[in-house]
């Protein structure tokens, strides 16, 4: 079927372009977008191979959940805080290129000689059709032959979730949130958000000039830690 | 399923897409009229008889507006973010079955675009990609209000997607399939409640899942009372603050089409899809029933918007993780136990 081949080449080319773009792009958010493209195209390859379930799960889990959270973080990172790449660190660059080439060579050899074939299962097209489709076939295998592995994976994921909760907890369990020792707030204590004009003759300033003074640039606002949100912090605006 | 030529499927898909676009336009009219009625106003009356041409006028006006791009915007991302929302919303309709196979001009025509083995998950997957349009658009605008809206959208959709997906597991357990067509066919069997014999719509056997699904669906489509990403009063309409003209209209289209598709989805999953009196013999009655059921859900959306104030952000998250998630897990466990017991496998 020629049109299937054409569609496959289109998908494959887009997937490779997405992967390449992910590495090349300078902006981390652009990288994430390219990775999304790559993932969706790989899901499309899964669907073309008759594994709709895998394809859709690939989209839901990787594209829909994990990458969204990744993007979430990337959007909050100031690009200037990121380590500059392609600058300095010649050793790392050289080692990276060498390791990459070795990996590429390994994969190419494996594909060329077809040494990585794995154990042949009984999942032929006919057998899959017999149980009613690949979703059902996968479900059967997962919940019978590989039940133990499945349960272990669930346990590991639960441990991961609990770990994240413990790390994010600001205080010991049982301490109510309003008694928090420290709170994060922007360094502008109440009422001092608008800076008063200072110096002699400042009071007579009206109209445009006063609004110009009213908003000093955001430089003075630092992220500070204070033990009470209403407390006047010592740093930042409190000194004015 | 595969006996239909490709071009016929494409033709049908094209038809459905255009019907959906017109449906979206008149959804705005419907919403304005219903809202107006609830608030004792008239709603649109001027353009055309009873204001019926108002959506067309709005569309023309939106396309004629100036297309503004903020100076510090990330132009490429800013350009395609609205398209993501629009496309992912409209693709979902591909798995909605409007009926079985009918004969038109001597050809068999399937009244569904595709009967995917994992149809329900397909819809969920595309609604989860849709959030990229929101957060990327918000980020690319380089506007703080937009970014806040985008972050809210990301957190909200990721949380409520879990509820949405898990609330369907009960239905999948009962139907034994993820295909929307199989789920619809599974609801054609009769169910006897005392003297009554009714169709086995899953709203009867899965009432808790239905309520949870509706809550999660409203949150997933960013509609009131879960419209925090575009909270006008705090965020100046959030993620699309900087969008104007036809780029804004894509967000607008995406939101309303997502509502329509989710309503069709809910009707198929819980209200028997095309089932109704006489629908076995006349396919057009089936389509009519499906649309009527979807309109009930759309009315519900508007009703919510007119009635409920917006949630606070911590309430939104608290409800998802502390109330809805335990309930939805309980529903799965109970449904699975009942299913096993009815097969005689539990004890």
Distance between the termini of chain B: 40 Å
Task: Give Rg of chain B in angstroms.
Answer: 21 Å
Distance linking N and C termini of chain A = 76 Å
Helix content of chain B: 55-70%
Percent of sequence in beta strands of chain B: under 5%
Portion in beta strands of chain A: under 5%
SSE series of chain B: HHHEEHHHHEEHHHHHH
Q: Percent range for helical residues of chain A?
A: 55-70%
Poorly predicted residue ranges of chain A: 178-196, 201-221, 232-240
Low-confidence stretches of chain B: none
Q: Give the number of DSSP strands of chain B.
A: 4
Number of helices of chain B: 13
Rounded mean pLDDT score of chain A:
71
Most strands sheet of chain B: 2 strands, antiparallel
Structural features, described:
The complex is a heterodimer of chains A (about 240) and B (about 350). By secondary structure, chain A is mainly alpha-helical. Chain A has helices at about 1-25, 30-50, 50-75, 90-115, 125-130, 135-145, 145-170, 205-215, and strands at about 185, 225. The radius of gyration of chain A is 28 Å and the shape is globular. The termini of chain A are far apart. With about 350 residues, chain B is mainly alpha-helical. In chain B, a hairpin with a 2-residue loop joins strand 3 (about 190-195) and strand 4. The longest helix of chain B is centred in the N-terminal third of the chain and has 33 residues, at about 5-40. Chain B starts with 5 loop residues before the first helix and ends in a 5-residue tail after the last helix. Classes of the chains: A mainly alpha (about 240), B mainly alpha (about 350). At the A-B interface, helix 2 and helix 3 of A face helix 4 and helix 5 of B.
């Amino acid at each position: 079927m020629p049109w299937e081949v054409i569609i496959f080449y289109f998908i494959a080319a887009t997937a490779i372009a997405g992967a390449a773009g992910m590495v090349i792009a300078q902006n981390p958010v652009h990288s994430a977008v390219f990775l999304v493209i790559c993932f969706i195209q790989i899901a499309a390859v899964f669907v073309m191979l008759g594994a709709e379930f895998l394809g859709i799960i690939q989209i839901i889990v990787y594209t829909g959940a994990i990458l969204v959270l990744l993007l979430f973080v990337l959007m909050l990172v100031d690009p200037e805080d990121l380590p500059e790449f392609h600058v300095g660190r010649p050793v790392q660059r050289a080692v990276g290129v060498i390791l990459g080439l070795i990996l590429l060579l390994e994969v190419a050899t494996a594909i060329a000689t077809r040494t990585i074939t794995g154990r042949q299962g009984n999942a032929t097209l006919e057998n899959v059709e017999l149980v009613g489709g690949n979703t059902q076939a996968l479900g059967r295998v997962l919940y019978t032959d590989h039940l133990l592995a499945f349960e272990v994976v669930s346990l590991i994921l639960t441990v991961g979730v609990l770990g994240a909760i413990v790390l994010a907890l600001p205080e010991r369990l049982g301490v109510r949130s309003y008694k928090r020792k420290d709170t994060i707030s922007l360094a502008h204590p109440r009422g001092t958000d608008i800076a008063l004009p200072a110096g002699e003759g400042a009071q007579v300033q009206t109209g445009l000039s006063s609004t110009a003074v009213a908003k000093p640039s955001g430089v003075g606002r630092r992220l500070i830690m204070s033990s009470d949100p209403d407390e006047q912090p010592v740093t930042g605006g409190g000194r004015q | 399923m595969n006996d239909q030529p490709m071009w016929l499927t494409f033709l049908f898909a094209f038809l459905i897409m255009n019907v959906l676009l017109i449906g979206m336009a008149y959804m705005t009219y419907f919403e304005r009229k219903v809202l107006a009625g609830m608030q004792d106003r008239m709603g649109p009356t001027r353009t055309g008889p009873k204001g019926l041409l108002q959506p067309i006028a709005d569309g023309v006006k939106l396309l004629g507006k100036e297309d503004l791009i903020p100076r510090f915007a990330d132009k490429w991302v800013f350009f395609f973010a609205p398209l993501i929302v629009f496309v992912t919303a409209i693709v979902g309709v591909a798995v909605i079955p409007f009926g079985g196979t009918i004969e038109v001009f001597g050809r068999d025509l399937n009244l569904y675009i595709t009967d995917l083995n994992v149809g329900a998950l397909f819809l969920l997957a595309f609604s989860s990609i849709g959030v990229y349009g929101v957060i990327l658009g918000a980020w690319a605008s380089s506007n703080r209000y937009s970014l806040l809206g985008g972050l809210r959208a990301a957190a909200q959709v990721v949380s409520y997607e879990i509820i949405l997906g898990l609330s369907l597991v009960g239905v999948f357990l009962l139907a034994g399939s993820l295909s929307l067509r199989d789920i619809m066919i599974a609801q054609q069997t009769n169910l006897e409640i005392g003297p009554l014999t009714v169709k086995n719509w899953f709203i009867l056997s899965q009432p808790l899942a239905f309520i949870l699904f509706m809550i999660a669906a409203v949150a997933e489509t960013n509609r009131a009372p879960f419209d925090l990403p575009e909270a006008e009063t705090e965020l100046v309409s959030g993620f699309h603050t900087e969008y104007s003209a036809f780029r804004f209209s894509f967000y607008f289209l995406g939101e309303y089409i997502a509502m329509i598709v989710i309503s069709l989805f809910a009707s198929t999953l819980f209200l028997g899809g095309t089932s109704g009196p006489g629908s076995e013999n006349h396919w057009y009655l089936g389509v009519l029933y499906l649309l009527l059921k979807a309109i009930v859900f759309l009315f519900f959306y508007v009703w919510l918007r007119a009635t409920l104030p917006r949630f606070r952000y911590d309430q939104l998250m608290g409800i998802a993780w502390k109330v809805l998630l335990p309930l939805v897990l309980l529903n799965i466990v109970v449904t699975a136990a009942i299913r096993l017991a009815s097969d005689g496998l539990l004890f």
